[in-house]
Amino acid sequence: MFENIFDEEERGQVGIGTLIVFIAMVLVAAIAAGVLINTAGFLQTQAEATGEESTSQVSDRLQVVSQSGTFDSDYNDGQIVELSFVLAQSPGASNIDLSTTSVELIGGDGQETFTLSEGSGDGTVIDMFKGDNNVVFTDTSDRAQVSITLDDGGSPTTGGGNAGDGAYSLEEGDSLSVTFTTASGASTTTEIRVPSTVVDSSVRL
Q: Are residues 80 and 131 in the same domain?
């Protein structure tokens, strides 16, 4: 079964050189495996974080239950001076802090961006009329009324209470796009359309 080798030159050589080469190969393989494992772990962590952020940007949204406006027929020949929104937490969303929610108005007077506030000094008021926390949605049954003053004759820099950097005008027949963006980056957009003829001080928009 086994062949006897009598010629010394035909014998395999096993010595310190071969051992060194073998150990070097093992070390190289171990280092390469370590690099691959570390890279895989980093990519997994990054993928999980990206997935969580992407999920928040999609699910942590506000839901506009209803919207209305206050029409002042005596102010500047008649215009909407305040917007009111009833907001709720979208299904599947995490806790949403309304005080960190930004609002963007886009209409005929240009664009305004500001952050909601509990007080009325900056033209916004948050009234959590259903829920355990003052300004944070923790359940889909929570409800809050958010009021936004468009134009009260003043400006924030002179002590007025308009939302944003200046007065925003919304008259009969005008339209306005309102976008609520939560801290996670999830946005909800609603369209405001003022009827061409307004006969009541409270208008459903």
A: yes
Do 142 and 168 fall within a single domain? yes
**22 in the same domain as 89:** no
The β-bridge relationship of strands 79-89 and 187-193 is unpaired
**What CATH number is attached to the domain comprising 179?**
2.60.40.10
Q: Could you tell me where the beta strands, DSSP code E, fall in 4-132?
A: 62-72, 79-89, 96-97, 102-107, 110-115, 124-130
- 143 and 132 in one domain? yes
- Residue 115 to residues 25, 67, 97, 159, Cα–Cα distance (Å): 61, 18, 11, 18
Distance from C-alpha of 126 to C-alpha of 84, rounded to nearest angstrom: 10
Distance of CA 105 to the CA centre of its chain: 17
Our count of domains for the chain comes to 2
What is the C-alpha end-to-end distance of the chain, expressed in Å? 97
115: left (phi over 0), alpha (psi -120 to 50) or beta: beta
For 57-109, what is each residue's pLDDT tens digit?
A: 667 789 999 998 888 877 767 788 889 999 998 888 888 888 889 898 888 87
Q: How far apart are CA 101 and CA 113, in angstroms?
A: 11
- Condensed to tens digits (0 to 9), the pLDDT of residues 15-45 reads 677 778 888 898 989 998 888 888 888 888 7
Asked if 47 and 70 sit in the same domain, the reply is no
Nearest to 186, CA basis, from 36, 79, 28, 52: 52
| 118 and 150 belong to one structural domain | yes
